[in-house]
């Protein structure tokens, strides 16, 4: 029927990738918990390879996503999930960290540490 081998090879890779998406990947679950000293974003995706996760912080916007790459053709990829969070001003962006353990990605969002002591601000006269 179809004699173009390159076309058949490419379409077979795409079908394999879609088949994996349709039947081999579990649904991702995202949960955010707030604590006194910070917040934690938990992402569960048991069948997702840890290397497929990406966490990107741009100003106060945090994006968490994963991409399924084709082993045969690295240029071919399909997004598994993508979610973006607008972080509140009390999050210390310099201390945000991500940890993957046993099928769960945890993104820790520590708040700025408060000194707890009131501080009088000097008023400058011009």
TrEMBL record:
Q: Which Gene3D superfamilies match?
A: 2.60.40.790
- Which InterPro entries does the annotation name? A-crystallin/Hsp20_dom (IPR002068), HSP20-like_chaperone (IPR008978)
Q: What Pfam families has UniProt attached to this entry?
A: HSP20 (PF00011)
Give every SHSP domain span: 20-126
Q: Which family does it belong to?
A: Belongs to the small heat shock protein (HSP20) family.
The protein's name is SHSP domain-containing protein
Say which species the protein is native to.
Pontibacter saemangeumensis
